[in-house]
Every structure is written in C-alpha cells, then in structure tokens.
Write a structure and sequence with these properties.
Two copies of one chain form a homodimer. By secondary structure, chain A is α/β, with parallel strands linked by helices. Chain A has one domain: 3-Layer(aba) Sandwich (Rossmann fold), CATH 3.40.50.1820. The first copy, chain A, is built from seven helices and eight strands. An eight-stranded mixed sheet of chain A has the order 1-2-4-3-5-6-7-8, sandwiched between helices. In chain A, strand 6, helix 5 and strand 7 form a beta-alpha-beta unit.
Chain lengths: 238, 238
C-alpha cells in the first residue's frame, strides 16, 4: 500500500491507498486516534492496513490538536501530566477528560472537514470521494461523534470507549449506522456513561458490543467485526 | 438435511443432521426455544438450518415443559392467559415471568442432560458426542444458563433477552464463552436486569451485543454473528 504524508493548513496527516489505484470513487475511512497517540501510532497503522490491504479502501489519519507532530499548548502539557497523576491516585477522571477533550474536538472537527474537501478536490479523475466512514475510539470518538453529526459525507462510524453527558446532544444528531464498543471494566470511562451515550445516538441502525477488560483491552475479534461493519456499509472497492 | 423426531422419557424432541453423515464426533447445537414457541417453531427451524446446512453441525430441539406437544398444567394455562393480560395492561411482567420460568427450567435442565446422554450412547461409530453448544434466547436462556452451569459438555453458548436477579447465581457458575444478545427497547426484559446478568456471567470470554428494537426484533445480522460464534468455538465439522 502507498503511504503519503501531508500537511494541510498546519495539520499533519497521512493518506494510505492501494498501490497504483485511484482515490476517486474508492471508500475512504477516517482514522481518529486515541488520547496520547498520533496519526502513525500502532492502532492507526493497524487499522489503515485492514482498510487498504483487506478491503481495498483508502484511509486517512490526522494528528489531533496537541498530539503527534503538533505543538502542545501549556494546557495540553498540564493535561498530559495531570491525567497520569489522577489515574495513579485512583481518582475519577472522566469529567475532567471530557472537558479537556471537548475543547480539542471543537478544533479537530473543522480540520477533518477541510481534509475531506481537499481529498475531494485532489482526485485525479474528478470522480470525487467515494463513501466515507469514520473509525475512532476514545478520543477518536470524542472527535468523531460531533464530526458525524455535522458532516453529511460520513456514512457509517465505529465509535466507543467514551461516554459523558457533554456528548449527548451531538450523539442525538448522528443518523448513520454505528458500531459502538464498550469495555466492561474500563477504569477511564464509567459504564453508565458509555451505555447512555450509545442510547443517545440518533441512528436507527446501531449496535453495541461490550467485552470484559479495560480501556486498552479491546479484543482482536472486535477489530475484525469493525472491519466487516465498514465493508458492509461503505460497499466493496472496485 | 435429515430431521428425526423422537420422544425421550415423555419429552418430544427433534434431531437434525447432515444427510447420510454420522452424528459421532460432529459438533452439536442444543436449540432452546422461546416462551410460547416449540421445538419446530420458525426460530428453531431457522437455527437448525444454519447449524446443519451452513456449518455441517447437528442440532437438537426439545419442547420445553408446558410447550408444543407437551401437556399444559393448570399453572401453565394460567401463565399463558395472564401474561397476555399483563402486557396488554402495560404492567411490568419480568418478576412474574422469572418466577414461572425458573420453575420450568428446573424441570427442563435434567431433560437436556438426558438427551445428551442418549445421543452420546446412540452414536453408531461409538465416537461419542462432538463439541456441544447451546443457542437459546429468552426462555431458551432461562433454561440454558443453569444447564451450562451444570453440564460440562456444553462448551459455548448464545444467550440473551433475559435478565432477572434469580438467574445471577447460575450465571456466575457458567465458565464457557458466551455471546449475549440484548434488545435495547425490550418491553419484557428490563435493560438493567439484562446488563446485570451479562455482568454476572462467570465466563472469561463473553461478549454483549445490543441493538435497538423490541423483544422479537433481534436483527438478522445477529443470527449470523451467533453462527460465526458457534463455528469459532465448536470447530469445523469434518
């Protein structure tokens, strides 16, 4: 597969696509990384491989604000330090994470929209973008839910590992099919909050998959299920 | 596929297997029907076809006590009449259903054990039973959970559409992989009860799949997922 790095309006990203094949008309998956991760972190690269090698799709990832190659503000630095201290002290972090990441999502959503516009214009055959999916858990979903609510080009989404009352309103405006992952023993995301967020999603077609284990222990089988879900909703690549 | 009816100690059942192929060593799925249904109801026959035609497994179904061809006691008659009245009146039914079906499960569990013994002895090649799975929702799970807790031959189970505190103890003794289905808008099973029952399952490997819709609206995709789950855990037929 071909991997191309780019910078758009100061936001570093990476685009993957099958070798020698056009982007136009091809299903495209937006990969949102988790907190503390970045566009070329192992989770992102693994999903890009699944999208491109197994499904024949294209995939794109961006560094979220304050992540990867992007500058960290004083607030980002404070967040990164303090979250470790709170977790180490066994204190609840979800309300505090929600506040910080909601501010981050407000910046990230228009960045994703700009990337979609640029990729749409980039297409060499002027066919325009194919069907677009979103695949991002945890911080990826904090960004992806308001993105899917605002951006009609997103046709299906894999969300999960998140759930705070501040996300309810945007979730209600999501109308596309969603596969939502929950880790039963997630110490970072209260179970009730994740269940309520799933309930709040406005989608007629949505499915919740819950498994034992902590925030970082999503089973391999769920990655395969997410892959099938995206293949089902974005269609087959030519 | 071959369909054979039988009666064992007064319990009517049906056995499905691939035409002309032996039972011995072949994965076998026990199909537990829902309340008011029976061994040859549409749900049971559909699952038997999936097991036999698609997976090459054998499958067996029994009429639960008070169902199908079995005599109904005065209590069964009263239950069948009153549940309709309660639902029509919009009254909560789960505690009352739990009480009635728990008594039914106490009778049904030894009947399933007897069927396993008989099929084990029946095998013409003296190979014995292959790996055994259980697939039953609602009343099927009310029976299947204490069965899986008590019967070491059950190696994997699809449960769901149930959840009452009276099932917690048996659920804790289930140790095999479980796929558990929940309908988000189930008017017969309170969501909290179903979530708590999933949480109580003793299995290290368990997965919850929740979808919008009522008790009888399990999506087709979940039948396919259950099929994959059983194929994964019971192995391929020869």
């Amino acid at each position: 597969m071909t991997q191309r790095r780019f910078i758009l309006d100061g936001v570093p990203g990476v685009l993957w696509q099958p070798d020698g094949l056009p982007l136009g008309g091809r299903p495209l998956v937006l990969l949102g990384h988790g907190g503390g991760q970045h566009k070329l972190g192992p989770g992102s690269v693994d999903r890009a491989r699944r999208c491109v090698r197994r499904l024949g799709f294209a995939a794109v990832a961006l560094d979220a604000p304050g992540h990867g190659e992007r500058p960290r503000s004083a607030q980002d630095e404070r967040f990164a330090t303090e979250i470790g201290e709170l977790i180490a002290a066994g204190r609840p972090v979800s309300a505090w994470v929600a506040r910080h990441t909601a501010a981050l999502a407000e910046r990230a959503v228009p960045e994703w929209v700009a990337v979609l516009d640029a990729l749409d214009a980039l297409d060499e055959r002027a066919e325009g973008l194919g069907p677009v999916g979103f695949w991002g858990l945890s911080l990826g979903s904090v960004v992806g839910i308001p993105l899917a609510a605002a951006e009609p080009r997103v046709a299906a989404a894999v969300f999960g590992l998140t759930g705070h009352a501040s996300q309810t309103e945007a979730a209600g405006r999501v109308g596309v099919p969603v596969e939502f992952l929950l880790q039963w023993d997630d110490a970072l995301v209260p179970r009730e909050g994740a269940l309520a967020l799933f309930g709040a999603l406005g989608s007629r077609e949505k499915t919740l998959h819950a498994n034992p284990g902590g925030h970082l222990e999503v089973p391999e089988l769920e990655l395969e299920s997410s892959e099938r879900f995206l293949a089902r909703h974005l269609g087959r690549a030519e």
